[in-house]
Amino acid sequence: MARAVSPRRRMIFTVLAWSIAFVIFFPVLWTxxxxxxxxxxxxxxxxxxxxxxxxxxNYAVVQxxxxxLKFAMNSVFLALGSTFFALVIAIPAAWAMAFAPGKYTxxxxxxxxxxxxxxxxxxxxxxxxxxxxxxxxDTRGGIxxxxxxxxxxxxxWMLYTYFKEIPGEILEASRMDGASVGKELLYVLAxxxxxxxxxxxxxxxxxxxxxxxWTLSLTTKDAAPLTQFIASYxxxxxxxxxxLSAASTMAIAPILVLGWFAQKQLVRGLxxxxxx
Amino acid sequence: MATQQTRALGxxxxxxxxxxxxxxxxxxxxxxxxxxxxxxxxxxxxxxCSLLTPGQLLDEANRCFAGTTNYYYFLTxxxxxxxxxxxxxxxxWVIAISVxxxxxxxxxxxxxxYGRNIVRLMIIAPFFVMPTVSALVWKNMMMHPVQGFLAWxxxxxxxxxxxxxxxxxMTAIVIMVSWQWLxxxxxxxxxxxxxxxxxxxxxxxxxxxxxxxxxxYMILPHLARPITVVILIETIFLLNVFAEIYVSGSGGRAxxxxxxxxxxxxxxxxxxxxxxxxxxxxxxxxIVAFFLMRMIGKNLEG
Lengths: 276, 302
What we know:
The complex is a heterodimer of chains A (276) and B (302).
Chain A: H1 7-34, H2 39-42, H3 57-66, H4 68-99, H5 105-115, H6 121-134, H7 140-164, H8 168-176, H9 181-210, H10 213-218, H11 226-231, H12 241-270
Helix pairs in contact in A: 1-12, 3-12, 4-7, 4-9, 5-7, 7-9, 8-9, 9-12
Chain B: H1 4-36, E1 38-39, E2 56-57, E3 64-65, H2 69-76, H3 78-109, H4 116-124, H5 131-142, H6 149-156, H7 164-167, H8 169-194, H9 198-207, H10 211-239, H11 243-247, H12 251-254, H13 257-267, H14 271-301
Antiparallel strand pairs in B: 1-3, 2-3
Helix pairs in contact in B: 1-14, 2-14, 3-8, 3-10, 3-13, 8-10, 10-14, 13-14
């Protein structure tokens, strides 16, 4: 800190910031705490914050009763699968647009972005019917295809903005040395592109993991990911808050951790490079 | 310095993405447009088409051409006005809360404070919570009229418990969705703030510029672009809010346009009506998209 700040001012701002952050974070914290309570304590008023009988029972019950692992595996499959297939076609496209831009490159990029603005409800009915007729409803393959197409524009854009920052002179130099396009890709571009690709993958996994419109309307059982798993808790029978909390904690924990690592990329990815 | 050969290679490299996205956009959209002009109900295999203009049977599936009837019914359905109003209220309120709150919060986080990184992690967390989880957590643990945490707070303050989802469903949804999007706005505005020139800040401090006019004349213009981006991006996402309303079971009173289309289509099986609704949603979104594209296009030049 270059600026001199009075200790008092610093303390006041610190207390203020921590208080606000605590309020915003509270529902997440509360969910995690509740997941370790018994059902009786979960609805107990006044609320018990730390001094209750910590138990892991809810996690065991959730796994046993509603087969959490199956849904979690589906979430992993859908997130990784859609990301992988999107990358396969996005990397060449972004590479070409960044290093060999043509007359229409910019128009193509803008057009790709515009597909992202289509409201999903505009495509819901036909897609539902197509999926029904092709037997794709509630299959992993079908949802992977949808999620891949859904996030493809963001992936191409992110990769494009990263690739753009790789100096073209290096490529020219390698070309002068007689490197083929393949070698150029493998030995020159790839090492420099890896950080950008990694950030893109991270952001896309988060988006795919949390996607709820398509996963809720096109899956029921076999391919249902965690979004659907949690939604099944919306019509409860009896005491269930502690179990709901355990299920929720398991559904958000992995992505929360990834998200904390991906903060910076998130800004860049979701603003399409407009804010860096 | 692209040669003929790399150009050709470039086209081949771009082609799969372009074709995939083109199909993704054009096939469902044209089908929706087509359905929107049909009388087509999955539960009603023998539509009384003669009652409708021009009323002519089309095919085996007993769909028939209905002209603009679907649009007429959808646009004059009282539920449409309610959904439209809910959509706009949701977008308007959440944007107001997240932009104003986000700017204030970002200004605070930009100050010298202890443990800024931890504070940042805590604030960004809600953005990563999946919509179905946040719907159920808010509906039960936070806003439950008897055992919810907020009920405990209001009761302790002597205000009595509020049954949020029963009496103020729209407010409940706005609070819940703002909770998810305020962090996003904060993060983006903070990122932009941190790129503000330190030397300018110091110079202003040495000149004794009052903080408020410094904010108004220096900081705010610098934030104009990120704030515009936040508004436009949030509008696109917020127009499509669905899971929060669906899972919290507040579609009846706080349902927005996407929820209404879902209701028409997957609940009432009225494919024609749902498609007309879908097209209305597409038109609305395109009006917003038009401005967003121009913004981002400008940034591309710069």
